[in-house]
Amino acid sequence: MITSTLKLRLNKKQEGMLNGWLLNLTAIYNFGLRKIELNAQNKIYFSAFDFINLLADHGKKLDIPSHTIQGVLSQVYTAWQRCFKKIGGKPRLKGLRNKLNSISFPDRIHPPKENHISIPGIGRVRYHKQELPKGIIKNGRIIKRASGWYLCLFIDSQREPIVCTGNGQVGIDPGFKNLLTLSTGEKIAHPRELEATEKRLGQAQRGHDKQLAARLLEHRANQVKDRNHKLSLRLVKENVLIAFSADNIKGIAKKFGKSVSSSGHNQLRKMLSYKSNSCGRKYIEIPSKNSTRMCSACGSLSGPSGLAQLSVRLWNCACGAQNDRDINSAVNVLNAAVGAIVEVPHAAA
Predict the structure, then answer these.
(1) C-alpha to C-alpha distance for 262 and 213, rounded to whole angstroms
(2) What pLDDT digit, counting tens, does each position of 189-225 carry?
(3) pTM for this one?
(4) In whole angstroms, how far apart are CA 82 and each of 26, 47, 89, 91, 160?
(5) Helix, coil or strand: residue 146
C-alpha cells in the first residue's frame, strides 16, 4: 500500500462545503467519543460494526455521504480500542484547540483524469498536476492544513525497490549540536530549521497571526521530513547493517526541549526501520546506556559521565586510546549490534 498526497484546487463552493462538513463531523466525533465513554461506565460495549452504523440514517439529513460518517465513527472506535488496550492515551474531544482537520472517504475512488478527481459528495475537484503510482485507489482522506486542502490517496501498489550502492556497517549516535555522528567518523551537521524561522515565528505569535504561525510551523515540519527522508535513504543504500543508539527522547526533551523537537530523531528512526525492511537491510536499535563512557578500544568505563561532564568532548583512556565522545559512542553502538546478531544464532543452537 502506497500513500500519495495531492494538493487540491477547490472553488469557493467546494471549500465552503468541506468547512461545513468538518463542523458537523466534529459534532459526530464528540458524540461517538462520549457515547463509548459513558456506556463503558455501565459495562455496555459495542462491536465495531454496530458502532459505525449508529448514525446510518443521518447521511441525507446532514447532506454528507453515509460512509464518511461511518469513517469518523470508525476513527473514534479505533481511538478508544487503543486506549482500552493501553496502546495509546485517552482520546480528547475536538474543539478550537484540538480541531478535526480530516474527512475520510472509505469507498474506492476512481482514477483522476486531466487534473480532476471525483470525490463522493463533492464532485470533480481540480488538483496540482503530479504523477500517481499505478494501482487501485482503495480509499482517501481530505486533510485541511495551514497551506490548503490535500487529498491523501491509499493506493494498492508496490513501492519501487531501493537501489543499494554499498555493503557497509554503521553505528549512529544522535546528537543536537551535530545531528548524527557515524561510527565511520563522519559528523552530519544539524540544519537548524527551527532556528531559521524562530524570529519570524515569534513575531507572528506575538502579533496573533495564527494563520502565518501555522504556515511557518508546517513549513518547518516539511523541511524536517524531507531531510529525514533523504538521510535515511542514503544510509539504507550504503549499509547492510544500521545500528541506532536508542536514547530516551522523552527524558531528554524535559531538559533540552527545543533542541530535541528540532532534530526529529524519532521520525528518522521510523524511516530507517521501514526502509531497511523493504530492501532486506538490517536495522537495530541499541540501548544507549554507558555508550559514551565505555572505551571502544578496551571496553573500560573510563569516559566522562553525567551532566557535569557533558562539555567534555575528547577524553583519554588508560589504555592509551584518545576518544571523541560522539564517535566513540557510535562505534560502541555498532559493536553491540554486531554482537547481538552473532549471539542470536548461537543461542538458538
Answers:
(1) 16
(2) 888 888 888 899 999 999 999 999 999 999 999 999 9
(3) 0.81
(4) 20, 15, 8, 9, 32
(5) coil
CATH of domain 168-195+221-348: 3.30.420
Question: What is the sign of the dihedral through the CA atoms of 11, 12, 17 and 20?
Answer: positive
Q: Counting beta carbons within 10 angstroms of the beta carbon of residue 16, is it exposed (0 to 12), middle (13 to 18) or buried (19 or more)?
A: exposed
Contact present, 164 and 279 (Cβ < 8 Å)? yes
Q: Cell match 549490534: residue?
A: 337
Q: Distance from CA of residue 284 to its chain's centroid? A: 19
CB 262 within 8 A of CB 252: no
Is residue 254 within 8 A of residue 247, CB to CB? The reply is no
Determine the length of the chain: 349
Q: Where are the domains of the chain?
A: 2-156, 168-195+221-348
* CA 2 and chain centroid, separation: 15
Cα separations in angstroms, 28 against 17, 45, 54, 66: 17, 18, 11, 12
CA quadruple 194, 199, 200, 205: dihedral positive or negative?
positive
Instruction: Map residue 257 onto helix, strand or coil.
Output: helix
Q: Which of 219, 227, 198 is closest to 146 using CA atoms?
A: 219
